[in-house]
Specification:
Layout: E1 2-7, H1 11-25, E2 30-36, E3 46-47, E4 50-51, E5 66-69, H2 74-86, E6 94-95, E7 100-101, E8 106-107, E9 112-113, E10 118-119, E11 124-125, E12 130-131, E13 136-137, E14 142-143, E15 148-149, E16 154-155, E17 160-161, E18 166-167, E19 172-173, E20 178-179, E21 184-185, E22 190-191, E23 200-202, E24 207-208
Parallel strand pairs: 1-2, 1-5, 6-9, 7-10, 8-11, 9-12, 10-13, 11-14, 12-15, 13-16, 14-17, 15-18, 16-19, 17-20, 18-21, 19-22, 21-23
Antiparallel strand pairs: 3-4, 23-24
């Protein structure tokens, strides 16, 4: 059994806790131990049947085999995951038993695949990426590190999503489009052409957000 400590104790971390508990119930060899969070107000609380055991600096005193950084903010998740890797920690993957992962798919360390997500063949998913509830990633996608594909978002075939990008709730990305690093796609938007790095797009079809 792989004992996993969850870094973070917020809403997303509780979703990850449920994923790991469901994986345990499905006899997939994982046992979530509890959370570590630097918000002292959460210490000793219990969420999704698991305790908050302390702050991240307490990791050394907690018996474990692996960790997973379960924080929704892409930049904070990147910072903490890199810290855990530098420490030499083994990084777990959280994969809900109801997720559909095709053959010949690569999932990077720290990836979180939520309930009902679908990833089709020959796709590559980077480290610390969130594939949230009910999203779909079609064939031959290249999803970078620390990306968040939000609930109900859909990516066509041969899409490239670079590091740190966010695809919002219910958004759609047409086949062969590229989303640049740290770009953002608004909820319900339909992306029909490449999005430059750092740009936020909204609407149907998606266009850069005008700053007023």
């Amino acid at each position: 059994m792989q004992r996993v400590v969850i870094i973070g104790a917020g809403g997303h971390a509780q979703v990850v806790a449920d994923i790991l508990l469901c994986a345990h119930d499905a006899a997939e060899g994982v046992v979530p131990v509890g959370y570590l969070d630097d918000n002292r107000a959460l210490h000793h609380a219990v969420f999704a049947d698991l305790p908050v055991l302390g702050q991240t600096d307490d990791l050394d005193r907690i018996p474990h085999d692996a960790v997973i950084v379960a924080i929704g903010d892409n930049r904070i998740r990147k910072r903490l995951l890199r810290k855990m890797m530098t420490r030499g920690e083994r990084i777990a993957i959280a994969r809900h038993p109801s997720a559909v992962i095709a053959r010949h798919v690569e999932l990077g360390p720290g990836t979180m695949v939520c309930a009902g997500a679908v990833v089709n063949t020959e796709s590559v998913i980077g480290s610390g990426t969130i594939l949230n509830t009910g999203c779909t990633v079609d064939h031959h996608n290249r999803i970078g590190d620390y990306v968040h594909i939000a609930p109900g978002a859909h990516l066509g075939g041969e899409v490239t999503v670079d590091e740190g990008a966010l695809v919002g709730l219910g958004a759609a990305v047409m086949p062969r489009c590229t989303l640049g690093a740290w770009s953002r796609v608004g909820a319900g938007a339909v992306v029909t052409k490449p999005v430059p790095p750092g740009v936020t797009v909204v609407g149907v079809p998606a266009r850069p957000l005008q700053k007023g």
